[in-house]
Amino acid sequence: MDEANNTADFTTISIVQGKTRLTADRASATGLGFQNSQWTFAGRVMITSETSGSLWADRAILEYRDGKLAQVTASGSPAHFEQRRTDSQQAEHGQADEITYDAKQETVRLHGHAHIFDRQSTEITAPMFVYHVRNHKLQAISDSGTPAVHITTKPTRPVVAE
Predict the structure, then answer these.
(1) Any idea what DSSP says for residue 3?
(2) pLDDT band (50, 70, 90) for residue 159
(3) For residue 53, with 0-12 CB atoms within 10 Å meaning exposed, 13-18 middle and 19 or more buried, which class applies?
(4) I need a labelling partner for 126 at 20 to 30 A (CA). Which of 2, 18, 45, 111 fits?
(5) What span, in angstroms and rounded, lies between the C-alpha atoms of 51 and 57?
(6) Mean pLDDT value of segment 81-94
(7) Rounded to 5, what percent of the chain is helix, strand, coil?
């Protein structure tokens, strides 16, 4: 810790807050504490919440403003997530080059080679997805000049010809 410059560096770090756990090989912080700070985690980053899901990435940046988590930006080759569902359906999985959670807007943005699938029958790819946490809406976004949104649905049981 360097109190004069208000920075810190850590190795083999594990942080637990409530039902959420974050682990990484390395971490550095500017603006110590959580009032107004930025924490950068690198190397086998894993964020796990018992209630909502998990995120795996090569790198994650957590930004705190006014004592609250403002944004999480995870990147990887690719970064992965699993969203647990409260109903009987299986978890949803996704991956992208970058996954950003905006706490104020309550959105998750998957950008770059974005891919969402349910491990059973549906797979969606797009340049970008925006998931609205509050109302559980998913938008697949394809800018002009970029590849389109692709949806693949596989039969859940064999198709029988008559």
Answers:
(1) T
(2) low
(3) middle
(4) 45
(5) 19
(6) 71
(7) 0, 65, 35
